Amino acid sequence: MLVEAGMVLAANDLTVERGGLPVLRGVSISVRAGEAVALMGGNGSGKSTLVRTLLGLLPHRRGEVHLFGSPLQDFRDWSRIGYVPQRSPALLGGSKVKEVVAAGRLARRRPFRPLSRGDRDAIDHAIALVGLADLVNADITALSGGQQQRVLVARALAGKPDLLVLDEPTSGIDLEQQQVLAGVLAGLLAQGTSLLVVLHEVGPLRRLIDRAVVLSDGRVLHDGPLGDLGQHRSGVGTHQHHDHASQLHDDRDHSTETLLGGAMDP
């Protein structure tokens, strides 16, 4: 697979099976440096499965994945990638904001070493970026859904990633919080960070998105500008009953996979 210069993520002909059933069928997707790509589709279309496959958290039966020009199986510089999973109160526990965000430094630290001055500065900077500096010592369970989502974004940003992958970051949060999140992501794009964002609806993030990739039944239905999505609306924001295998296994994965932003070593 020939990877184009400036490509931070490239996958070609990905096929994934879960429980013997096909979930992704010949999917190809790419993200260029500084680009914001929305990954869209109905429930069960395979969005979360694709994200986890791209990050090496799930195996694929066929196809290739390259991260920053390296084949997935050879890639080791996981600090360059920040992962923001779907928000789950069970995963957040009863930790303080600063403790959750500090976990985002794990990919840049040696095990069991105390936080360095650089670590502490990166943590404080990430919290400030998402506008939660006044809540640094708050219990995360006391925060609103939108604030919790921003804590997860800060956790990923603490590793100073070049690519930020967000799985449905606007789900379950009100419009005002979505607009705050859009402002945070706009600032990251201005700094050159690349974004891959899983979305049901674009909402306030519309102005940030350069390109949309729409999945339907585990296949790419559309890859192009948001303005061309009208002809494919049937595959966006709807539930697809024929692909329950993807949803079933995606739900199970939330309780088992390591969900520390940037701290992944598949």
Structural class: alpha/beta
Number of continuous helical runs:
7
CATH fold naming of the domain at 7-81 and 161-253:
Rossmann fold
Q: Average pLDDT across residues?
A: 83
Biggest sheet: strand arrangement: 6-7-8-3-9-10
Q: The biggest beta sheet, please?
A: 6 strands, mixed
Q: What sequence of helices (H) and strands (E) makes up the elements?
A: EEEHEEEHHHHEHEEEH
What is the β-strand count?
10
Q: Provide the β-strand percentage band.
A: 15-25%
Give the CATH architecture of the domain at 7-81 and 161-253.
3-Layer(aba) Sandwich
Q: Detail the poorly predicted runs.
A: 237-266
Q: Assign the CATH class of the domain at 7-81 and 161-253.
A: Alpha Beta
Radius of gyration, rounded? 18 Å
> How far apart are the termini?
21 Å
Rough outline:
globular
The CATH superfamily of the domain at 7-81 and 161-253 turns out to be P-loop containing nucleotide triphosphate hydrolases
Helix content: 25-40%
